[in-house]
Amino acid sequence: MPLNRLTLMPEGVGIDLPQGSPLTGIENKTSEPLIPFGCRSGACGACVVEVLAGSDALGETDPDEADFLEDLGWTEGNYRLACQCSLWDSATIRVVAS
Ligand code: FES
């Protein structure tokens, strides 16, 4: 299965995941929590990331995800809940929530 690279800024850490893997898969790749996942079900807002490149690579934004991001105030720019994304190509993100 092909690997795709997820790059986390500003550190520039690159993690390779099998195509289509949920972003929660990075937890198995490093000992450090690169993205602060909480509920892993799109309900807590702990994992908000800004997509800097490759937004198409992260799959479609579900309407419930979009509504929740709006509730959290992340309406300007290109924000996603990392726990609701899968990696289908290379992408670059920045963690904004903690
Ligand atoms: S981990 Fe809770 S919304 Fe993503």
Describe this structure in words.
The chain is mostly beta strands. It has one domain: Ubiquitin-like (UB roll), CATH 3.10.20.30. The chain is built from one helix and seven strands. Strands 2-1-7-4-5 form a five-stranded mixed beta sheet. A two-stranded antiparallel sheet has the order 3-6. A hairpin with a 3-residue loop joins strand 1 and strand 2. The radius of gyration is 12 Å and the shape is globular. The mean pLDDT is 94. Bound molecules: FE2/S2 (inorganic) cluster.
Summarize the structure.
The chain is mostly beta strands and about 100 residues long. It has one helix at about 65-70; strands at about 5-10, 15-20, 20, 50-55, 80, 85, 90-95.
